[in-house]
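seq as requested:
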Amino acid sequence: MNQSLPSLNTLKAFEAAARHLNYHAAAEELTVTPAAVKQLVSRLEAAVGTPLLTRKGRGLILTPAGMAGLDDLNQGMQHIRTSVEKCVTPASAGS
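struct tokens:
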């Protein structure tokens, strides 16, 4: 992987697909098509140079590489959500 980060969209797609272990559920959450989620995950896999998810029946399973980074990615996404909420939530009086 080069020094730049993969796109936020690829990270969001992987995080949602890994949480749901299903492209369709991830697509519903992200309001895109399942094919778009799969394509974004494929781009992330190309950027990091290894598979992160594999198909199992109608669902997905995480590869060891996918498992290795998922907790940190989940925490990072939560930090981003919290930061955005702070930007749009009015500051309490007197701050």
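The chain has a mean pLDDT of 91.
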